[in-house]
Predict the structure.
Amino acid sequence: MNLALEEARAAAARDEVPIGAIIVDGAGKTLARAGNRTEELADPTAHAEMEVIRQACALRGEPRLPDCSIYVTLEPCPMCATAISFARLGRLYYGAADAKGGGVEHGPRIFHQSTCHHRPELYPGIGEDQAAALLREFFQDRR
Amino acid sequence: MNLALEEARAAAARDEVPIGAIIVDGAGKTLARAGNRTEELADPTAHAEMEVIRQACALRGEPRLPDCSIYVTLEPCPMCATAISFARLGRLYYGAADAKGGGVEHGPRIFHQSTCHHRPELYPGIGEDQAAALLREFFQDRR
């Protein structure tokens, strides 16, 4: 999660909402790392999770990553949670919960839907305090 | 919807699940058109809707497309429905309903969630018969 937090800090330095993600393979090797890039790319789909899924799949030449884990600093939104399911990621570790926009334990609770065909193992609250502090500081500075 | 159906047919010819999408601006100009590319790119996020949203936003240099409409041959999944909401698309026209994987009138019903902050106008069932026939033929041929 430290690498994901680094990516979140780097995103903040680029004036992006500070969220970071990494994908690690079954041997513990980091396959992909990214921060949020929605502002830079003017792309509403360029969340950190989407970026690392696309990177890791491109690297492997495979659309499924069942041996891999994704670490994200914030609870994924419904778009990213669904993408995590499509990518068949084995484990999801995330930091702060997101009551307003989350899609794992809030809102549509994507992995609990009958139309969700793969549910990763879930590990919430990992590095939660640091991830939440980063987001709080970012939005305070902009008020 | 005819252009979206053309893109779905082109996807089938590339051995992709036949789903197509286009984005049209407020003046009726087609900004982006794409079929599903998940196999070609080994990218589980490369649904037709995501491709056209990314294309149209890149073209405009804007992450929001409130004056635009998206036409898709199948009910969007929860990932794409959420992306449509993030892109603030004004209107969503879609063809066949998707009881197994849809996220608009099935499963998480994304636009009805309290965590969904933008809901497009919804026009289901447009070109439904042709879109459904394309999918049926595609999966029959592969059995």
About this structure: DSSP finds five helices and five strands in chain A. The mean pLDDT of chain A is 96.
